[in-house]
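Reviewers of the previous submission asked for a worked example of the structure-prediction workflow described in the proposal, so we include one complete record here. The input consisted solely of the amino acid sequence. No template or homolog information was supplied to the procedure at any stage.
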Amino acid sequence: MNNTRNSTSETGHAKNIANFQDLISFCKGYGTNYNPVKEELKIPNLEALYQNALLSLEDTYSKKISFNSATNQRAEAFKNLNPLATKIINALAVSETNPIMLNNAKSFNKKLQGTQKTKPQTTIAEEETEQVTKSISTSQQSYNSKINNFSNLIQVLMQSEAYNPNEEDLKVSSLQNKLLNIKDKNTALIIAYTEYSNARILRDQVLYHTTTGLFQTAKEIKQYVKSVFGATSPQYRQISGIQFVKGK
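From that input alone, the workflow returned the following structure tokens.
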């Protein structure tokens, strides 16, 4: 039996792969009686498909962990952005006498504070739906908006000759570093999600392609064994109950 890592080994994609290994083992046990004409059903090709499926699943797990880590790191980087912006406005208000400049800064802060709040997604279901993808897209728009408004706020400060706070975290140079940091974390998240999404696409191709996927191949193996040994044979009964669930 295959011992795919962690709790998902008994469900979903991992269970399909584990069951496919069992199916191969039974086919090997039939010896020379298992001799399909179709190349894709021969034992070496079945073993290659199994290994490919296992690697694609492991790569998806790895990319998912990276995506979750990048999500948490971005959330941490953005965590104090709103209160920091409020401190900036207070510092500017006690030094800037130009009402237009102060109003511009307040306007960008208001937009930043009003940007839709999104909860960091620390876990993503292995079978992501279109709704989850849309949720991520909405979250991304929110973070992009925060970056844009924070950047505009810094631009106002750079134009103000009066803004020169003693507090290190409120200095323009510190704020510029903060901006670079949240941009970097946001970009890292985008890259991590792209890699995770691509890994899922490859995994699904290996497992569920309509002609070459593991799910279809398992179906054809059962049909072949049934044709060789018969529908009531002990050989067919061995494998007929091995379940494979088609991914969404």
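The first helix runs from residue 12 to 29. We consider this example representative of the routine output the project will generate in years two and three.
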